[in-house]
Recover the amino acids of this structure.
């Protein structure tokens, strides 16, 4: 059974930093790209960032480019999201999701999310 | 950037009836890269349909996806009480894991 468990969400001040983690199990982690998607309170889904299976390629939404860094440790089956220069508008529930194999690349499994609150 | 517009924003349907949800893209997209997700309150999204019309594992056959070009539809026949939720369409950019979501349609019980 595929399991994704996010952690690291917390209250942070504007301009601060947080590091999110997503521990994966139940599949061959290093074979799959991974993604972060966020959902602001009462709002819809917003793609944040993706990383290839090897970690050599990364992709970012314009809203987080230059502030967030996605990475992974395949030996520990863990996905990360380093969030710097946080803004109030980054407040959201952050989900990690497994990306299916090409060509589809849909998000076939999701974690339960970790809450990031940015406020002074 | 391709924008996905879902309609209606809220759809009220009685249990046992059919629901038809629309997703319109600002430019033509490949149906292979179009997916639908269901999200219930307090839960993570769940993949329903991928490749425009393929049901994900464990999804009942009352869920069906269709469409080409810029207009896509999710149809839920014979609505059960567990189907009332928010539904999102999503498209993937070409061959890379970059995504856009529609704003969602809330399916509520009439």
């Amino acid at each position: 059974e595929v399991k994704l468990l996010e952690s690291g969400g917390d209250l942070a001040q504007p301009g601060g930093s947080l590091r999110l983690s997503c521990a994966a199990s139940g599949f061959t982690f290093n074979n799959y790209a991974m993604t972060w998607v966020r959902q602001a309170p009462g709002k819809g889904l917003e793609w944040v960032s993706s990383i290839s299976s090897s970690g050599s390629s990364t992709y970012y939404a314009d809203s987080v480019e230059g502030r967030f860094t996605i990475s992974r440790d395949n030996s520990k089956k863990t996905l990360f999201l380093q969030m710097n220069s946080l803004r109030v508008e980054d407040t959201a529930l952050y989900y990690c999701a497994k990306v299916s194999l090409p060509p589809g690349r849909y998000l076939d499994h999701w974690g339960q999310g970790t809450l990031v609150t940015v406020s002074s | 950037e391709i924008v996905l517009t879902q309609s209606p924003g809220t759809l009220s349907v009685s249990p046992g009836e059919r629901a038809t949800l629309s997703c319109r893209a600002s430019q033509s997209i490949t149906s292979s890269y179009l997916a639908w997700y269901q999200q219930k309150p307090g839960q993570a999204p769940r993949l329903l349909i991928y490749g425009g019309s393929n049901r994900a594992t464990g999804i009942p056959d009352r869920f069906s996806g269709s469409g080409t070009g810029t207009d896509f539809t999710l149809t839920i026949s014979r609505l059960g009480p567990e189907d009332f939720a928010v539904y999102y369409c999503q498209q993937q950019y070409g061959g890379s894991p970059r995504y856009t979501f529609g704003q969602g349609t809330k399916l509520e019980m009439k």
